[in-house]
Design a protein that fits this description.
The structure holds 2 protein chains of 2 kinds.
Chain A lengths: L1 H46 L6 E3 L6 E3 L22 H35 L3 H39 L1 H10 L1 H23 L7 H33 L14 H5 L4 H30 L3 H22 L2 H15 L1 H8 L4 H25 L7 H22 L8 H7 L13 H23 L3 E2 L5 H25 L5 H4 L3 H22 L4 E2 L10 H27 L4 E3 L3 E2 L10 H28 L24
Antiparallel strand pairs in A: 1-2, 3-4, 5-6
Chain B lengths: L1 H7 L8 H9 L1 H24 L2 H26 L6 H4 L1
Classes of the chains: A mainly alpha, B mainly alpha.
Chain lengths: 638, 89
């Protein structure tokens, strides 16, 4: 009793400490924020004999007292751009990308842990709850090793900035001075919380203490998310500066500097992207362990782990293109020219590659789900329809990746009769592409629904109506998406641009309504057989590895596109990049660089996984007295 | 008699016994029970009508098409755009 009370006190103290850590940066920052806004202005006023200079915010158009120095006008030389005998931009690109990969991973995995731990706490099946808990623990263990590497890479990134781009870094850190130390303290809070969360796992595994532990994961993720939002404000400022005048002088309102035009779309896009990426990496880890497993028990465990990670990753992948559309829309709203550079100009071909990668992600997901149906008795009934899904997916994919114009020789141009192909050229416009991607996502939702009901037969009295309704709803959704895509060709561009919203709503309606309806129909359903975890083809695991690699590659690509759109500006329209590398690389060079980053990340993350496995205790395999050939079932349901 | 009534509308035997004990003690309650059974029978009839493939297809088509037309119109209207642009011009 005394021990339990002691544990409770300890747990509550730990939770309070975490809340304290969360609030610490804000409390510490309050006085400095106030001083940061007024002290320099006060000093300036004294020097100029009470004369206060005012400036107009370039974005918010509000007036403010100038409290910062103008953006430096750099010149190509050792003072502003010191260098090694190598392209500085490539070195910075590498350091930045690796830090981002690891940062995304360690921010995403604790969110997974929180979800899985919560599932473990609320589930009534004790054996299943224990497995969920173990899975969450396995996840955080992987993340912990990666966390140190993230911090090291962050240090390398700062040193790279200081060494190769001192003028730019000095300006940026000057602008963000009021929140720079908040970021550092947030990092301390994140580390402290993560360690308490990890090492307190065993001590707080039951009852009230478990809820306290779960609350800790919520705080951990709040800190992690705030950390990411702060980092996003820097890139948001570089793309769409605010809070400064046309000379780049800080006007004293840090919220304007943080809350730029692209900050919120970037936040949403990045959080979804991180989650999808984290799910992909964990799924690939599980796939690797599955392929290397020597026992049925291990295969069953890693098959289940791979499925959960993939499902969580894909759950965040599905809304990701819509968040991307929002970001692009805001980019167009901020500077139309920037949007045109991205999607219709210099960087347009990179978007074709991006479309190819998105298509690969969804094709891999569908392929995995179809393969996964093989481990359920009763799912054979869907096998004969899969070829139709392949056809629909292939059509959507081909439309989605068709470029608007081609790079051609004069002879080819003459043979084709222009830059656009007379037939295929029609598919290179957004109207068709919106239709293509929505068809792909809707088909993925349909595959998921089939997977969820693979080994079940609904027993509700209205099952027949439910099945017919689902079929017709999906059919009507496909019809609506394709109709809107075609309709877009016949109406003016200013009306057409709005059609993407009902198209997205159609896809999301399928996702939410059909998942909900399916869940209601499958409540208390008759099971045709258990899910035989571990009895899945090796091909499915390669699909998971493919999924993770495609995620990693696409993240690198999109980061490059987003950064390149500034062209020859460090800070868009405020601070010019005068280094010799202020040009846009060729598509081939960029692709090679991204591939190198992806390869490096995967080699190092394998090292991290290997390090993690060194600490794992070898559990002797107990002889089972159950049914011969029986495979333990980690989860009885999806 | 009530039990017979239950059978006549196709209720499973297992659904009635608990409530039957209460029924036997009071005539008024029995009347209410009769009314409830009527309602259940109505619902059953509706359900079986919905489970008729032709009815199910028609009802599903009406709901789905109606819903998507509403979504298209409303979401375009929300953006200040006219979904029926082509048909009006």
């Amino acid at each position: 009793m005394g021990l339990l009370a002691g544990k409770r006190v300890f747990s509550i103290m730990a939770l309070c400490m975490m809340v304290g850590l969360l609030l610490l940066p804000i409390v510490v920052a309050l006085p400095s924020l106030a001083i940061g806004e007024e002290a320099p202005a006060g000093d300036a006023a004294k020097k100029d004999g009470d004369k206060v200079e005012k400036g107009r915010d370039v974005y918010y158009k509000t007036e403010g007292i100038v409290v910062g120095a103008p953006a430096p006008k750099t010149v190509d030389g050792p003072r502003d751009y010191p260098r090694y005998n190598f392209e500085s931009r490539v070195l910075l690109w590498f350091a930045n990308q690796q830090h981002l990969y690891y940062g995304s991973f360690v921010l995403a995995v604790p969110i997974f842990c929180m979800i899985i731990e919560f599932m473990g706490v609320v589930t009534k099946d004790k054996a299943l709850a224990k497995r969920y808990d173990q899975l969450a623990y396995d996840f955080i263990k992987i993340s912990l090793t990666a966390y140190s590497l993230t911090a090291i890479l962050g240090g390398i990134l700062i040193f790279t900035f200081l060494t190769l781009y001192p003028a730019f870094f000095s300006y940026l850190s000057g602008i963000f001075r009021p929140v720079m130390h908040i970021y550092a303290l947030m990092f301390v809070a994140e580390s402290g919380t993560l360690y308490i969360y990890y090492y307190g796992w065993d001590k707080m595994k039951e009852g009230f203490l478990k809820w306290i532990h779960l609350s800790m994961s919520v705080i951990l993720n709040i800190i992690g998310t705030l950390l990411m939002f702060l980092a996003n404000s820097w890139i948001g400022f570089m793309m769409s500066p605010a809070g400064v005048d046309e000379q780049g002088r800080y006007l004293g309102n840090i919220w304007h500097v943080i809350h730029t035009a692209l900050w919120n779309p970037l936040n949403l896009h990045r959080i979804l992207g991180n989650m999808a990426f984290g799910g992909g990496v964990v799924a690939a880890y599980a796939a690797y362990k599955f392929l290397a497993s020597k026992t049925d028990e291990d295969r069953a465990h890693y098959d289940w782990m791979g499925y959960i990670a993939m499902a969580l990753g894909v759950a965040f992948l599905i809304p990701l293109p819509f968040a991307g559309y929002w970001l692009m829309r805001e980019v167009y709203a901020y500077r139309q020219q920037m949007g045109i550079t991205l999607m219709g100009g210099l960087l347009a071909w990179l978007f074709i590659i991006q479309a190819t990668m998105i298509g690969i992600l969804f094709l891999s997901t569908n392929y995995y789900l179809w393969q996964a149906m093989g481990r359920m008795r009763g799912a054979e009934k869907y096998q004969r329809y899969i070829k139709y899904l392949v056809f629909i997916l292939a059509c959507g994919y081909m439309v989605f990746i068709t470029p608007h114009t081609m790079v051609m020789t004069p002879a080819e141009l003459k043979a084709m009769g222009g830059q656009q192909h007379p037939v295929l050229g029609n598919y290179g416009v957004m109207s068709a592409k919106n239709g293509g991607i929505n068809v792909i996502i809707t088909t993925t939702v349909l595959s998921f629904v089939w997977y969820m009901r693979g080994n079940k037969v609904s027993t509700v009295s209205w099952a027949k109506f439910g099945n017919i309704f689902m079929g017709i709803f999906f059919g009507a959704a496909y019809f609506n998406i394709i109709f809107l895509a075609i309709y877009g060709y016949y109406i003016p561009a200013n009306v057409r641009v709005g059609l993407s919203v009902p198209q997205v709503a159609t896809t999301l309606s399928c996702l939410f309504f059909m998942f909900a309806l399916n869940s209601v129909m499958m409540k208390g359903a008759k099971q045709l057989g258990p899910i035989e975890w571990g009895k899945i083809s090796a091909r499915s695991q390669y699909a998971l590895i493919m999924l993770a690699t495609a995620f990693t590659w696409m993240m690198g690509l999109m980061g490059y596109i987003r950064s390149s759109v500034r062209l020859f500006w460090h800070v868009n329209e405020i601070m010019r990049d005068n280094s010799p590398w202020a040009y846009t690389h060729t598509v081939g060079f960029a692709a090679n660089m991204i591939s190198f980053n992806v390869l490096f990340f995967w080699i190092t993350i394998l090292f991290v996984f290997w390090l993690g496995s060194l600490g794992a205790k070898k559990v002797p395999v107990e002889s089972k007295a159950g049914i011969p050939g029986g495979v333990p079932q980690p989860a009885a349901s999806h | 008699m009530l039990l017979d009534y239950g059978f006549s509308i196709g209720l499973p035997v297992s659904s009635a016994p608990v409530e039957l004990k209460v029924l036997c003690s009071c005539q008024g309650v029995a009347v209410q029970f009769n009314q409830r059974l009527d309602l259940v029978a109505e619902e059953k009839k509706e359900m079986s009508a919905l489970n008729n493939p032709v009815v199910a297809v028609i009802v599903s088509l009406i709901i789905s098409v109606g819903y998507f037309v509403f979504v298209d119109h409303y979401l375009m209207d929300m953006q200040g755009l006219d979904f029926w642009y082509l048909f009006r011009n």
